[in-house]
Amino acid sequence: MPELWELTKLIRSKNAGPFQLTFDIMFKDSDGFQRALKSGSFTAEKIARVYGIQPESVRLFHLDNVSTIKISIPRRLPSGDACDTDIYGGQFHSPLVRMQV
Question: 3-state DSSP call for residue 24?
């Protein structure tokens, strides 16, 4: 079973405002994209488990025409909070990189 990074050309996270994170998972081709979708790895429940949040707070988008999965989740802390470890949200994608698909 391949890891997500093997099927993608880009996996990134970033802020979507001070209270949300968004993840872009861009696949090398349609075959890898379809494989990931069929793997069952990209459900609200699985993403919620990875990030320790409630499934109902996960928003998933499948962009077939560009072989991309977008995910939005709430930040645990607002961007810029004194305890925030990543003000730009650029490192939150790391748990997804080695996900089995």
Answer: strand
Tens-digit pLDDT string for the chain (101 aa): 899 999 999 999 999 999 999 999 999 999 999 999 999 999 999 999 999 999 999 999 999 999 999 999 999 999 999 999 999 999 999 999 999 99
Query: Which sequence spans correspond to the domains of the chain?
Result: 4-97
User: Two tokens at 33?
Assistant: 């994209």
CB-based contacts of 95, cutoff 8 Å, min separation 6: 50, 51
Q: What is the distance between the alpha carbons of residues 64 and 96, in angstroms, rounded to a whole number?
A: 20
The CATH-assigned architecture of domain 4-97 is: 2-Layer Sandwich (3.30)
What's the token pair of residue 8? 């993608």
